[in-house]
Amino acid sequence: MAAIELRQLTKVYPGGVKALDSLDLVVPDGEFFALLGPSGCGKTTLLRTIAGLETATGGAVVIGERDVTGVQPGGRDIAMVFQDYALFPHMDVTDNIAYPLRIKKVAKGARHEKAREVGARLGLEQLMDRRPGQLSGGQQQRVALARVMATQAQAFLFDEPLSNLDARLRLEARTFLKKLQRELGVTTVFVTHDQAEALAMADRMAVMESGHIRQIGTPAEVFQRPANTFVAGFIGSTPMNLLDATVRGDTLEVAGCKVPVPSSAAGLLRDGESVVYGVRPEYNTYSDRPADGALGGKVVIVENLGASHLVTLEVAGVSVQAVVPEGNEPAVGDDGYASPRRDRALVYRDGELVSA
Amino acid sequence: MAQATSPPEVLAEKDTQAGRYSSDAAGLGRLRAGAFVAPALALIAAFLVFPALWVLYLGLTNYRLTGIAAAEPQVVGLDNFVKAVSDPAFWNSTWLTVQFVLGSAVIGQVVLGFTIAWLMRDRTGPLKRIVEGLVILAWILPSAVVSFLWVALLDRDGGTLQALLHIPGFAPLLDHPMLSIVIFNTWRGAAFSMMLYGAALGNVPPSHLESARLAGASGWQQLRDVVFPHIRGHILTNLLLISLWTFNDFTPFLLTAGGPDGQTEVLAVHVYKVALLGQELGYGAALSTIILLINLVVAVFYLRLLRSKK
């Protein structure tokens, strides 16, 4: 078990693409840490640089207080689950799980014993003699996990561990993985492009954009108080409403309507300044009657989310979304009013969160 | 709610259509379809089937290049085959051929070709292009040209090697003729193996190699546990092809003419000497038949290996 520390880590690919730009990050011992970001943001490069599969151009990787920047992957005492699981097709499940132990010259009896023990823990007892080609996607993933567990490495790295599973299995695997990590208590870094996955599983997470970390925090912090408009737009299953606003005393003028200054930004704004007003559709209360501090407009789209509806209002040429519980959803063409929750709305100045 | 399934009539109609197409997809009929393949079949018959059968027949006669037996060949049954298996020169040639195939193809070309492909797998840029270009050049140049170049390199008196080294009496083609043609053929044919393994290595999933590296596997362990199991089929196909090509290769003759003293008289050269220089066409045809059978055995052996343990 060990903490992972990155100091000013930089990776420049031949050709001048800067995949990682002087990153600092500490993942404490035993933490389940998510790297989240859109395609090409450098999250996979970061994971591979921690693993040693990519060589850092600058900076240091420290695992368990040992500087491993120049150490080969095999010498870093870490284990990784690949997106495609990377199980060897010519070996049965037992040999696959025991492979890292075989490389470490553990005797055959001992390593097979260990493989059986770990396999049993992951419910693979009946499958130990099969080849990977005879297993389902979910089973293959558990074999890959078992192989990682059998190594007893100091830290685990998962590269999009759930993306090859179908939607239902992914939810099961998510719960399973979180429980397993908690039981093992091994420092784990995982990469995902799915914000719901990161929010659900991680103890803490980093949101990345083009080689930079834009925010590090717990899922609750990242969801409720995105540090900048990039994170605000990326996190959440329905994107946050980000509306141009002008400060008018202790109200904000948004799309021709007046809304109160959110509590988080109270006293921090100058009169007349241009800012961005952010509120999640979930934190908008919808009503068909005008109200103080509400954004009023016409309903243009109603999307069914199952237990609720996502209603899009057009307010003076700007789209504003609100989540409406089932039962009182409006019809397209109705007049509607969305009242943002003052304690959940946010203000961004030059793309950064305004807060004390 | 009504179930939206297709009415059975439609399904039945589809079935009959599928049935009709499966027996005659183009709808040409037997005669016209036959007419389309006839030219190809005629060419194959004239240039492959007939000569092969003709060799089988000649092998059973005492046919000669000149003389009475040339005008009126007699069928002598299996005499030629009996003569072959009781002739030490035949067995010597067979043994030399085995050395030549094992040395230059199975070991030389495979190892050299794989090594180059492995070393160049992650490279791009001029070094890779130059190395591959040179290796492929050795492969595509005409035999007569490269043979002349190698004689010019290895010759005892005026050879390039001799001019560089100045060792009196150093004559590779005379002192180590088999080694000379093995090295020559390794150099000559490595390109095919290199290209085949280059393509095969591209199919090895990078994550499998990385997984092995993370476990701490050395270069050799990565080859053994990841690369070789993945390209097993490619290796066997490669071995099959180059074994057969090398077995029937006549190019050594251009370098050493089978000499000195028959030390490089591989089967292809032996047949040439017997049939054309010795004028015994019937006996030469019998030897060719034996070579054909050996080739068949080798091919069946490799194909069995390929099929076993998928």
Structure, described:
The complex is a heterodimer of chains A (356) and B (310). Chain A has two domains: 4-234, 3-Layer(aba) Sandwich (Rossmann fold), CATH 3.40.50.300; 241-353, Beta Barrel (OB fold (Dihydrolipoamide Acetyltransferase, E2P)). In chain A, strand 20 (346-349) and strand 21 (352-353) form a beta hairpin. Chain A is of the alpha+beta class and 356 residues long. Helices cover 24% and strands 35% of the residues of chain A. In chain A, helix 2 packs across helix 3 (108-121), helix 2 packs parallel to helix 4 (137-150) and helix 3 (108-121) crosses helix 4. The mean pLDDT of chain A is 89. Chain A is built from eight helices and 21 strands. Chain A has a six-stranded mixed beta sheet with strand order 6-7-8-3-9-10, sandwiched between helices. In chain A, strands 13-12-11-14-20-21 form a six-stranded antiparallel beta sheet. Chain B has 310 residues and is mainly alpha-helical. Chain B has one domain (79-307): Orthogonal Bundle (MetI-like fold). Chain B has 16 helices and no strands. In chain B, helix 6 (126-140) crosses helix 10 (177-202) and helix 15 packs antiparallel against helix 16. The longest helix of chain B has 32 residues, at 88-119. Chain B starts with 7 loop residues before the first helix and ends with a helix. Residues 10-15 of chain B have low confidence and may be disordered. Classes of the chains: A alpha+beta (356), B mainly alpha (310). The interface between A and B is medium-sized, with 22 and 16 residues.
